[in-house]
Structures are given as structure tokens and as C-alpha cells.
Sequence to fold (379 residues):
Amino acid sequence: MKLVLTEEEQFLKDTAKSFADERSPITHFRSLRDKNDPVLWDEEVWNEMVKLGWPGILIPEEYGGSNFGITGIGVVLNECAKTLTPSPLFATGVLGAYAITNFGTDEQKQNYLPKIVSGDLTTALAIDESSHHDPKETDVTAKKEGSNFVIDGKKTFVIDGSSADLLIVLARTSGNKGDFAGLTLFLVDSNTAGIKKIKLDMADSRNYANIVFDNVEISNSNVLGDIETGGETVEDILDIGRIAIASEMLGNAEAAFDTTLDYLKQRKQFGVLIGSFQALQHRAAEMFCELELTKSSVMAAMKAAEEGSNELQRLSSLAKTMAGETLHLVSNEAIQMHGGIGVTDEYDIGFFLKRARVAEQIFGSSKFHTERYANLSGF
Fold:
């Protein structure tokens, strides 16, 4: 397994960097936050991403995509994260595209994938139901009634949940809360009668929602994958999502680190640049080492996903753990080295701390994945 980018992947990374720097700098994110934008991402910027083909990176060519692989979408998310670019790319271009491509029926693929590629459809994965990530704790029910299913319950912390056109919902068709068996995935139009979206105001100023399902009736044709095997299916989808979000978190950490280094080279105390203080140099060196280790972990996970490795589950948890711990460290140190001004709204560095605290919880915290890695390793 070569932990380096191909020439094509590097070109895509460079393109994403130029796009993020020119079309979506941090000032753009700040403006969306300040005007309390309802979806907290810019439709014009999203349409430009669509023209670049990014929502179709994981989608086969027959449906209009490029089938460029998880490393391709990973490097795009990584570069966009450095300017905190908000968009539906993760929820739609990763989670939705991967789920429907790999588990959808031919009819579902024909219906949804071209719309994702064209930017006419956005998706959201509705999994969690409490403050802690654990798919097997699903209590939302989907009861069979004739040729239809009726969904009842509440999902929490749904990424892009307040704006998505299509919801991918994990519900229990049999068994009890806490059972991994008896789970099924459903594709649900977000405008279906009985659905209520409750927009959440989160520290990182991104698009999240709690979603209530009250007697929501859907057709049997809306089942994604096989009935009763949604637990295994959703873990596959989540592993790809965990790798993608780990790449994004790595980008957040790299940007916070670079911003802090620049500050150390400019800020003076007692007439001396603080970057010359050995204690701060040691702390910066530690951050650099952790970033390099995280890069290797994320790259290994992306390559494992593309090669269909049986190590995918372990490596996805490793990548998410490393990204979470490194981003936590770097965001903390960045604030400490900036001093009090680091938490003022005048400086951008505080945005990375806020993003870190939310991203660490997406699809499992470092603690969750450390335990999962140990279990998968037989400990």
C-alpha cells in the first residue's frame, strides 16, 4: 500500500486548494455566520463545486460521475476544510453518493445518482438518536403495513438535516433497542407528511437538525439494501464517512497549525519573537509530529477503502481516532499560543476550536473508536 497521492489525485488536491482560497476563504464562512444564513452554505459556491464534478467523485460514470474514489473526495474535503468551506459535499457527495451507489436498486440509482451529480439533490444520513454515537441503539421504528412502512421516532444531530432533499434513515424493523440485528435503511423524501425538522444552533455554525418522524408512510420500494441487514450496511457507509471526515478534520488541524506558526513568527513579547521561545518550539514540534502521523493514518484508510481491504474497519477507526485527538490538541494549543485574543471573534483561529469540538463527535468520538479498534483487533 503506497501512502502517496497519484498525479491525478495531486492535481485534484491543487484544484481544490485554489478553489477554497479564491472562492471560499474564511471571510466567506464568517459572512454566512454573521447573516445567520438559513442553510449555512452558499448555493452559488455549491453550484461551482457541482461544475467541477465533486459531488460525482464516488459515482460511476454511467450515472454521470467520475468514480474517482475515496482518496479523490478526501483530498477535496481536506483542502476545503482549511478555509472552513461549508457545503453539502460531505453529506451528499460522500454519504449519499456512496450509500445509493453501493446499496441502491437499479431504479434508485437511476432516480437519484444523476441528480446528485447535477446538484439537484442533496442528502442527509439520519443515524443517531442520542448525544452519543451508537447505531445499534436505534429506537426509531418502521412498522410494516401492507406494502408500505410507517416510520415513527426522532433522529438527532443530522448533518445537513435542515436542508437535505432526501433522508437516509436507519430504523428498527424488528428486535429491541441495543440489538445490531433487525435494522433497515430507508430513502425518505424530506417533504413527506409527518416529518418535522428542528434546526440546531451549533458552535461551529454548520447545518444540523433533529428530525421527528410522526406516522411517516413510505413505500416498500424505499428500502435501501436488504431488510433487516441495515446494521451491516450502515457500518459500511459510516466507515467511508469516518475516513472522509477524518480527512476534513486533518485539513482543519493543518490550517490551525499553519496559522499558529505564522503568529509565532510575528508576535513579540519583551521585544522578542515568541517563536524563539524554546518551550513554544517544543510544543509546535509535537503538533507537527502528530499531524504527520495523522496524515499517514488517513491516507492508509483511504487506500484501504479503494483496495477493498479487510482492514478497512480498523483503519477507519484509527483514522477517526487520530484525526480527533490531533485536531483536539492542535486547536487547544493554537488558542493557548495566541493567548486571550485567540478566543475573540476578531481572530479566525477560534473558528477552528469550535469546529474541532463538533467534528470530534461526528460518527463516533476518539473514545468510541479506540474501543472499536481494540474490539476489532481481538482485545
